[in-house]
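Researcher: First entry.
Model:
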Amino acid sequence: MDNNIVLELKKITQKVIALSLKTEKVIEVLRKPQKIKVFEKITETKKEDNKASINKTVSQEIFHMTGTDIVINIIKKAKKGVNISLLKEKTGFGDKKIWNIVFRAAQKGRLKRISRGVYSLPK
């Protein structure tokens, strides 16, 4: 075989091995429990010298929350119920996922339908 081809094949082999090692590291990271920030509220307060400072209030970090738990927590904080577009905005989930979560939770009695597309917790 040509010497150049052998060198190119060795380089390709080294790159494949390096990529497989990186892939294994990514898999290890994904298997570890991840912290999820659910809500973040930003409030502004004024100091005595009229300079505005921002105080961040972050809800507690929650481990391994399901999509249903996240949606239920958002609805729990709303007094008059929550519509689907607000749930999409707050969670970042797609239409299909939101509808499936709401449908299953309503079937199990965890949610109550107030009107079309608006849900709250049962009393």
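Researcher: Second entry.
Model:
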Amino acid sequence: MGLNQALEQADRLLSLLDAEFEALKSQDLPLFESYQQEKVGILEYLSATQLAEINQDDPAWTGFLDRVKDCRDRHRRNQILIQRKLDAIRGALKTLEGAEAASSVEVYDKMGRLSAGRRGRGLADA
């Protein structure tokens, strides 16, 4: 495989990473998943390529390296978006778990007795 094919694959990977980002932003997980197989194929193709034999003084080599760096940056951007979405989901789950814990808390009046309005009823029952 030559440098031209590697450039084409890197360009395709860039466009896939952009499409992946758009799918993540719109929370279209089936579309996001559909990109994964092609992305893995491109990465395997590039990693199996014998790029060490290419003349590194060739300006196309510099262009290829720039594209690979762009791919890395876009992958990191997508990774950050995924992590933020996961953090938001975890936060929502903690909030929901906290609401359940608060519903089982019993309230006492000034005399130290269980409050009449709360006896036997939790927040979830109200």
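Model: Note on the second entry: The CA atoms of residues 67 and 114 lie 68 Å apart.
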